[in-house]
Write a structure and sequence with these properties.
By secondary structure, this protein is of the alpha/beta class. The protein folds into two domains: 152 residues, Rossmann fold (3-Layer(aba) Sandwich), CATH 3.40.50; 159 residues, L-2-Hydroxyisocaproate Dehydrogenase, Chain A, domain 2 (Alpha-Beta Complex). 43% of the residues lie in helices and 18% in strands. The relative contact order is 0.13. It binds nicotinamide-adenine-dinucleotide and (2S)-2-hydroxybutanedioic acid.
């Protein structure tokens, strides 16, 4: 039997985690032969701590063969102790009429404290995946607060956007979403993200040839994917839950599966594709080892792509400026 992975999950009594945690425990994230120990963090108040106990009781009642232990915590120093993976979901979701960056004031500081705790107590080669919004900049804050941990070990989730793009392209082309590949998301997980119609493929052919409708791409596809999170909040009255959990399962599963197909991940930029260095931006990524990745080079970016990606990068730089003003130098 493999050594269990210690997987810390924050916001463990929240909406996303209710769908996420049983799927980690059942093996969907790390594989059917990989035991896990779940280290679940919630804020130190009675109601969320009670709800967390309920999550643990339900986990017991599932008798998952791969689940080797459960740690319940109200302190990040306990939750992140020796953690191999930290899945940072815990934070406030936005409401109607808000942009995700409006959450920086409330959520940004969480990732300073958690970054420091990860730095202090997590496993040597810990990997950190951030979901809590605005996730790119929260991941940046966390990485800056954990200088011991390599920047390449931090990621933020744009996989839900990729999955949304795949579904939209498939519906337009009249095919199943599994026929869509390389639906790349560039930039920020925000309304400025650039979902790339021109490099996506359908049954191995360029989507732009199969669909052949640039006006649709510009006027329908791109804004639909950019604003899908807000559309769900408007309709459901709450931000996406099981689709977000599913996005994180896919995100981590791809990052631990060498040879997986090209997938979209917000990672620490090394300046590839002319995107500013030292911000967390979404790129096409190929996995080369457990949690190891490289940016896939060679995609052609046309004028529209360059213009839109530049807008998203500008927004990411603005978010970082807000953080620096708000939190001082970190
Ligand atoms: P939720 O309010 O249902 O749950 C959040 C949980 O986090 C709560 O139980 C809360 O007590 C807990 N929490 C808050 N601060 C914490 C802290 N410092 N440490 C530990 N736990 C803490 O919200 P949700 O629907 O689960 O959404 C969580 C976050 O995920 C939001 O920021 C949301 O915007 C974001 N999100 C991101 C994506 C994405 O694609 N990146 C998709 C959906 C949602
Ligand atoms: C999403 O994309 O569904 C999440 O980021 C939640 C939100 O605020 O849109």
């Amino acid at each position: 039997m493999k050594k269990p992975l210690r997987v810390a999950v924050t916001g463990a009594a929240g909406q996303i985690c209710y769908s996420l945690i049983p799927r980690i425990a059942s093996g969907e994230m790390f594989g059917a032969d990989q035991p896990v120990i779940l280290q679940l963090l919630e804020v130190p108040f009675e109601k969320p701590q009670q709800a967390l106990k309920g999550v643990a009781m339900e986990l017991d009642d599932c008798a998952f063969p791969l689940l080797q232990g459960i740690v319940l915590a109200d302190d990040p120093m306990v939750a992140f102790k020796d953690a191999d993976w930290c899945l940072l979901v815990g934070s406030k979701p936005r409401g109607p009429g808000m942009e995700r960056k409006d959450l920086l004031l409330d959520n940004g500081k969480i990732f300073v404290g958690q970054g420091k705790a990860i730095d202090a107590v997590a496993a040597e080669n810990v990997h950190v995946a951030v979901v809590g919004n605005p996730c790119n900049t929260n991941a940046w804050i966390c990485a800056m607060s954990a200088p011991r941990v390599a920047k390449k070990n931090f990621s933020a989730m744009t996989r839900l956007d990729q999955n949304r793009a795949m579904s939209q392209l498939a519906a337009k082309a009249g095919v199943h979403s599994s026929a869509v590949t390389e639906a790349i998301i560039w930039g920020n997980h925000s309304a400025t993200q650039y979902p790339d119609y021109f490099n996506a493929k359908i049954n191995g052919k360029l989507a732009s040839e199969v669909i052949g409708d640039e006006a649709w791409a510009k006027d329908v596809f791109i804004p639909t994917v950019q604003k899908r999170g807000a559309a769900i909040i408007d309709v459901a009255g709450a931000s996406s839950r099981f689709s977000a959990a599913n996005g994180l399962i896919d995100h981590v599963r791809s990052l631990v599966s060498p040879g997986s197909t090209v997938h979209s991940v917000a990672v620490w930029s090394n300046g590839d594709y002319g995107i500013d260095k030292d911000i967390m931006a979404s790129f096409p990524v190929r996995t080369t080892g457990h949690g190891e990745w490289e940016v896939v080079k060679g995609y052609d970016l046309n004028g529209l792509a360059k213009e839109r990606i530049a807008l998203s990068v500008k927004e990411l730089n603005e978010e970082i400026s807000v953080v620096k003003e708000m939190l001082g130098s970190i």
